[in-house]
Each structure stands twice: as C-alpha cells, then as structure tokens.
Amino acid sequence: MNNDQATTAELAALRAAFDLDDGGESALGWTAVHAFEAEQGIVLPEPYRTFVAELTDGSYSGPPEYGLVSLAELPEDWGDDGQGRDLSRPFPLTEAWLWEDDPRPAEEIDPVVERVFDHGSVVLGTDGCGMNWHLVVTGPHRGHIWHITGEGAVPFGAEFGSTTSAPGFAGWVGHWAAQKEWFDAE
Fold it and tell me: Which residue numbers delimit the Knr4/Smi1-like domain (predicted)?
C-alpha cells in the first residue's frame, strides 16, 4: 500500500469498479483537492486523492451500501453536523476495539470514542444504521480503511484478520468489486 503515489493499475481498477460515464465531470479537480487539504491541514492518501481529483467525488455505483459520499460530506445518518471533526489530529486507533464490551467507565471510554469518529479520517460512506467506512488521513494508520459503528471499530485488510483483501482504498474497492462479503475471513 503506497499512500504517496497512485499506480496506473490501481487507477484502472478503480475506473473499472465504478460507473464513471460522465468523463470525469464529477471529479473535484486538483485545485479543489489542494484547497480541501490546505483547509484541513492534511494530504489525502493515494489512490483516493487521485480518485476524487480525477475520477469522481462520490458515486452511487460503488461501495459502501449507500454509495461513496463526496469528500467534504458526511452520510445522512451521521447524527450531528460534524463541527467537532478535525482531520489534522491523528486517528486514535491502531487495532480493533469493541467499546460496547469495554468494562472501563464511560467517562474513560467516551472521549476516546469521540476522537475515533472525529479525528484523522474522512468518511467514505455508510452501510446504514451508523455503520460507516472511514479512510484514515493522519496518524499511524494513514491510508487504511476502518469500519466504525456505534459499538466499535475494526480495520479493513488481510493483515488485520477479518478479510482476505488488500488494505487501503484500492483494496477495499477491489474487495467490493469482487462481490465478497466485507468480513470474509471470519
């Protein structure tokens, strides 16, 4: 997984996975991507960065269940206006965490859970009912995809044990395009 440069093969696979028949009109363009990155204090990981700049900024033809949301948007079921989000602050997790079963007191857990939702990731979209897919943009897991729900969070990619697919945006899209179950290694 290379977060700094998209490969020709990755971009071709992304084009093939999505219904991109608008000639790139739905893409943000590099000026808008650079402006978003400057405003947020981040650099988006590749190949997602090139994807939103050159291919499309959101799509109903791809993952997740309710489609890929635009870069600056949140899913309709997000629950608040996203005012507490800070993409420049590191995403706080490096391993799966089911906070619903964590025995520690809520006063200890809740602040960390808030950071999981609001720090260091862009929301790619939702499978409904608050089950959202995030792309980590800052921190040790930069470039990885995480599935975050009201009960917990789990990273996506074979190295984490819940799926057989490659990590990162290209691996996540490829997994969906192959019509595999999201957590096919369980």
Answer: 33-152
